[in-house]
Amino acid sequence: MRTGKHGLMTAAVAVVCAVTVLGAPGTAFADPGPAAPSPGAPSAPSASPEPSSPAATPGKDLEAVRKKLDALYRTAASATEEYNAAEEKTEKQSAEIVDLAKKIVKGEEKLDGLKKRAGAAARAQYRTGGLPDGAKLMLSDDPEDFLDGTGRVIQGQRATKGLLGELTRTQQDLKTYAADASAQFEKLESNRKAKATAQKKIEKQIAAAEKLESELEQEEKERLAQLEREAQAKAQTAWLGSGILKDLDAEATEPGRKAVEYATAQVGKPYQWGAEGPKAYDCSGLTSQAWVSAGQAIPRTSQQQWRQLKRVDIEDMRPGDLIIYFDDASHVGMYVGDGSVVHAPRPGRSITIAGAGTMPILGVVRPDTGTASSE
């Protein structure tokens, strides 16, 4: 890599251009499908391998169709988390590249200033050069003045040496910044490709599910919806039958109350993967924005929420806590009390309040650690 001004400035410009092209904002987050829950089970099997797209035929086993739809949406959810991970990395790397580009530009400006100072020092030394110091002393009309001047020259030489050292360090810094920017750019490009691959997979699964549903007769669609409601009711009944609700008497904190108010106010708005309001949300877009409204920033994806937030026992959860679903943490809802959650289910559905036990629970996390108010 060239170390001159032109080469390093070109690197900075290239970095900024790369960020402009590849660092465009975009988000997409956990996109769960409707579960075929196992009553009372704390977790569910991992998403099934990518299924083929079966055609619905008259008299087809609708329970099999329901399970196939579940598999398609669950595969889409897993792909969404792959997209999420790549998206988060690209945002971080874009920010780092921009920071490095700024450092390169500032370094170039500093280098220009140092070069000007070094040039001025060199010209000054040239003007005072020529005869040896001994000869200058003998020819001087005022030896004392000469000695004073010699001291100043020595000081100037020391300053020049320090100046050259600083110039060299600045050049080395610019080399390091350029190398770091190049490495970050390669990572950015890699994650951009990962995002594109995951997005295609998500879109393919959702399209297959929509096609499968579109091939059902109206009576079949109504029966399918009934089967889903029955499965959810069965799971919720089993969850409540465990006696869990009798221990859930904690009051919400003030931030928790605000988060619940925000989330429940979105009921009826459509699900859209990657959306975080205000017109549509995905599951973690809803929960993260609800807590932002309460003054608490939390991780954006359901998997990060599961990894980074404080975990609490189900028996200790309170309104505002987040319930993480499925063993891959691909879905999240907000507990609102009375054994219910508000959540954004999946494509084609709207934000709704449902039983907290209608899907397999992985665990519960708490965004805020404040003490609940007692009234």
Separate helix tally = 8
Q: Kindly report how far apart the N and C termini lie.
A: 68 Å
Question: What portion of the residues fall into strands of 2 or more residues?
Answer: 5-15%
Largest sheet: 6 strands, antiparallel
Task: Give the overall pLDDT as a whole number.
Answer: 76
| Shape category | elongated
Low-confidence stretches: 1-13, 15-59, 134-139
Give the proportion of residues in helices.
55-70%
Would you count the extended β strands for me? Answer: 6
Spatial arrangement of strands, main beta sheet: 1-6-2-3-4-5
What structural class results from the helix and strand content?
alpha+beta
- Secondary-structure element order, N to C: HHHHHHHHEEEEEE
Radius of gyration: 32 Å
Give a short synopsis of this structure.
The chain is 58% helix and 7% strand.
Walk me through this protein's architecture.
It is elongated and about 100 Å long. The protein has a six-stranded antiparallel beta sheet. Residues 1-13, 15-59 and 134-139 have low confidence and may be disordered. The chain is built from eight helices and six strands; from the N terminus they run ααααααααββββββ. Helices cover 58% and strands 7% of the residues.
